[in-house]
Write a structure and sequence with these properties.
Layout (H helix, E strand, L loop, with lengths): L1 H14 L5 H24 L4 H35 L2
Keywords: Membrane, Transmembrane, Transmembrane helix
Protein name: DUF4190 domain-containing protein
């Protein structure tokens, strides 16, 4: 489960910069699943602290980027709309 959380975190990081919002939302959901899997793996075996920490870090970073990027894109498009008038 710890390796799967790393893979899901990397997937979330990769889709954070995709040009499609629906793909970013899928990446955000993959990041959330990676966070849950990293927590379960840490509970199941405390000796896997390094791989679960990497999975948790990748998943949290990817999730935040996936959910912040569309908001920032929308704000920048609104600002560009009003600046070009």
């Amino acid at each position: 489960m710890d390796i799967v959380s790393i893979v899901l975190g990397v997937l979330a990081l990769a889709t954070a910069f995709a040009p499609f919002i629906w793909l970013q939302l899928i990446g955000g959901c993959a990041g959330i699943a990676g966070i849950v899997l990293a927590q379960r793996a840490k509970k199941a075996d405390y000796r896997k602290s390094l791989t679960t920490a990497i999975g948790m870090l990748c998943s949290i970073t990817g999730t935040l980027l996936c959910f912040i990027a569309p908001v920032l894109s929308l704000i920048s498009n609104i600002l560009l709309f009003f600046m070009t008038r």
